[in-house]
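[Meeting: bench + compute handoff]

Bench side (C.D.) handed over the final construct sequence. Compute side (W.E.) agreed to return the predicted structure before the next meeting so the bench team could plan truncations. Sequence as handed over:
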Amino acid sequence: MESETTLFTGKAMKRNKGFFSISAVAKMFSVHQQTIRLYEKEGLLAPKRSDGNTRLFSEEDIDKLEQIIYLTHKLGINLAGVQMVLKLQKQVKKMQKDMNRIFDQTNSELKKEEFSQKETIKTSMAQLAKIKSKSTLSPDADVTEKQTNFNWDIDYEE
């Protein structure tokens, strides 16, 4: 098993990756097993269960427990407050995910619009170049030459 360090509580803790028993988790955080069971009963934790109904704590469960312990023991927040904090964090993550999705969609639409505008400009430039190439005027021609090159015929209605 690999070793990992976490810094949520402000101090480094060495942990192995994988699943942990309740006794190992209790030792890891220096809390009683009953405390962890209470957190589970209150719905703050939901560790998996083995075939023999033994609690199996994953890395995510341990991270969540670390956060719960930090909020309750270090900040003095009660369990109802912890539930609210966890709920709000979940909502913030969802909103952040939604905002990232909207940002990506908007960015994609802007790129499409930019491509469309560039194509319009290319088309306009090509039309302008075509019009210029049809013109027989040279830049050094005098005014009378320029005037004779234009069709000055005007149809008047009687």
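W.E. noted at the follow-up: The first strand starts at residue 3 and ends at 6. C.D. will use this when planning the next construct.
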